[in-house]
Write a structure and sequence with these properties.
410 residues, mainly beta, Porin
C-alpha cells in the first residue's frame, strides 16, 4: 500500500514549486495566496483551511481544484579573482538557472460530519530549493538541486461553543530530492559516494497541525495554528551531503492571526508566521567552521546556514456586486546570512516581499503573485585566508518570482 501511495503522490512532487518564504509557500489556496498568505483566523475555501484546521467550519461543503504556474528567475554572480588551491575558487561571471516554469496542482475537500464538526482533506506542496545551472559551477557535471515536498492533510474540526473552534490535522509528507554537479565536495564528505548524481530519491514522514479560532465579537476573529516538526526518513542516497547522514526533516511553524470583518464580503486580515529552520541541521548548520571541523554528512556537517524566518502578512478583501477582490502584501527577512553564499548557489531563497491580488466570481477564482528581484552578496568562504580574513571572491545571489493560479469549486 505504501508503494502505491508514494508512486501516486510522487507524480505531484515532480511539478511542485511555489512562491517561497525560504522554501515554504507564501500561501495555500487561491484566496489565501491572494491575501499574501494572511488568513489563519478565517478560511475562504477547502484548500485555504489547511492553514488552520479549526477554520474549516467556516466554509461550505465543497470540492476545490486548482492549478498554478510558477515562474522563478534565479542565478548567481562571482566576482574577484581565482585563488590557487587549497582555496575553492569558482569561475568568474554570471550564471542563470534554467527551467523557469513549474506547474502545480492543488486539491481540497470539505464535508460536514454533523452540525458541530467537519472533515477536511487537502493535498498541497512546497518547493523552492530548485536550480538547474547550464554550467559546471563546482567543477563537476552541471550543478543543481531539486527539492519538492507534498503534504496530505486530513483535518478534523469541532465547534466547542458559540465562539471557540478547535481542529487537528495529521499530515502525511513526501519529499523528493536530487543533486547534480557536487562531485568536488566529495573531498569534504564522510561518504563521498553519496554526495551527488544519485538521481531522485523519495522519502516519507508524518507530523500534525493544531489550530484554534475564537470569535471575540461578531466582526473580530482570532486564529492560532501550530505545525509540528515533521520527522522524515533520511535521504540515504545523499547521506554524504546532508548532515545527520542524510537527515532532512521539515521544520515546525506557528501562525497567529486576526481578521476584522466589515461586511459579508469585506475584511482585513493580519498574520504573523515563524518558520523554525534552525530545527533542521542540514538546513541550519553553517558552512564555516563546520566544514573544517566535521565532514559533510556527519551530525555537525556543514549545511545551508539558514536562519529562522518571521513573516508579517496583510490582506484586504472587498466585494462589488457578486465579485470578490483581494489584495495582499507580506514581508519576511530572507533566511540566508551573508556568510553562507557558497552552498546557497544551489538554493537562492532570498525573497522577502510578495505582492498579491486575486478575484473570485461564482465558482471560479484566480490569484497572481509578484515578488520583485532581491539579491544578497558575501564572500566565497572557501577563498578566505584564515589569518588575514581576506577573501579572494565574492558571490551574489538573486531571484525574482511570478505566479498565477486558477481554481474551481464544486
Amino acid at each position: 500500500m505504501k508503494k502505491i501511495i508514494i508512486s501516486s503522490v510522487s507524480l505531484f512532487t515532480m511539478f511542485a514549486a511555489q512562491a517561497t518564504n525560504g522554501y515554504f509557500a507564501h500561501g495555500y489556496g487561491n484566496a489565501n495566496r491572494a491575501l499574501a498568505g494572511a488568513g489563519t483566523a478565517v478560511a475562504f475555501d477547502a484548500i485555504s483551511s489547511v492553514n488552520n484546521p479549526a477554520s474549516a467550519l467556516q466554509v461550505n461543503d465543497q470540492l476545490q481544484l486548482e492549478l498554478s504556474i510558477f515562474n522563478p528567475k534565479r542565478g548567481h554572480t562571482v566576482t574577484g579573482q581565482m585563488a590557487p588551491p587549497p582555496a575553492f575558487s569558482l569561475a568568474l561571471g554570471e550564471v542563470e538557472s534554467d527551467r523557469e516554469r513549474f506547474i502545480t496542482p492543488g486539491f481540497g475537500w470539505k464535508t460536514s460530519l454533523d452540525e458541530q464538526s467537519s472533515l477536511n482533506i487537502v493535498v498541497y506542496g512546497n518547493g523552492g530549493m530548485n536550480t538547474e545551472y547550464p554550467t559546471s559551477v563546482f567543477y563537476g557535471s552541471n550543478a543543481g538541486v531539486d527539492l519538492a515536498q507534498l503534504f496530505v492533510s486530513i483535518g478534523y474540526a469541532r465547534q466547542m461553543n458559540d465562539d471557540l473552534a478547535i481542529g487537528v490535522a495529521p499530515i502525511f509528507a513526501v519529499q523528493r530530492f536530487a543533486a547534480t554537479g557536487l562531485e568536488a565536495f566529495g573531498q569534504f564528505s564522510a561518504n563521498p559516494q553519496a554526495v551527488s548524481n544519485k538521481g531522485h530519491e523519495i522519502t516519507t514522514g508524518f507530523g500534525a497541525k493544531f489550530g484554534v479560532t475564537y470569535d471575540v465579537s461578531d466582526t473580530l476573529t482570532l486564529g492560532l495554528s501550530y505545525q509540528t516538526k515533521i520527522a522524515m526518513e533520511d535521504f540515504s542516497d545523499y547521506a554524504g551531503l546532508f548532515a545527520e547522514q542524510g537527515g532532512f526533516d521539515i521544520p515546525s511553524n506557528i501562525s497567529i492571526s486576526t481578521a476584522y470583518t466589515f461586511s459579508d464580503n469585506a475584511l482585513i486580515a493580519l498574520d504573523w508566521q515563524k518558520i523554525n529552520y534552525s530545527e533542521v541541521a542540514s538546513i541550519a548548520n553553517a558552512m564555516m567552521p563546520n566544514l573544517m571541523q566535521a565532514q559533510l554528512g556527519q551530525d555537525n556537517g556543514a549545511g545551508f546556514g539558514w536562519r529562522d524566518m518571521d513573516i508579517v502578512k496583510l490582506g484586504y478583501q472587498f466585494g462589488i456586486g457578486e465579485t470578490i477582490y483581494r489584495l495582499g502584501v507580506s514581508y519576511g527577512e530572507q533566511p540566508i546570512p551573508e556568510s553562507e553564499m557558497l552552498f546557497n548557489i544551489l538554493s537562492p531563497g532570498v525573497q522577502e516581499i510578495h505582492y498579491t491580488a486575486g478575484i473570485a466570481s461564482g465558482r471560479w477564482s484566480a490569484d497572481i503573485m509578484y515578488s520583485p528581484n532581491n539579491n544578497i552578496s558575501g564572500a566565497n568562504a572557501l577563498t578566505c585566508d584564515p589569518i588575514s580574513g581576506q577573501c579572494a571572491q565574492n558571490i551574489e545571489l538573486e531571484m525574482s518570482q511570478l505566479q498565477f493560479s486558477i481554481g474551481y469549486r464544486f
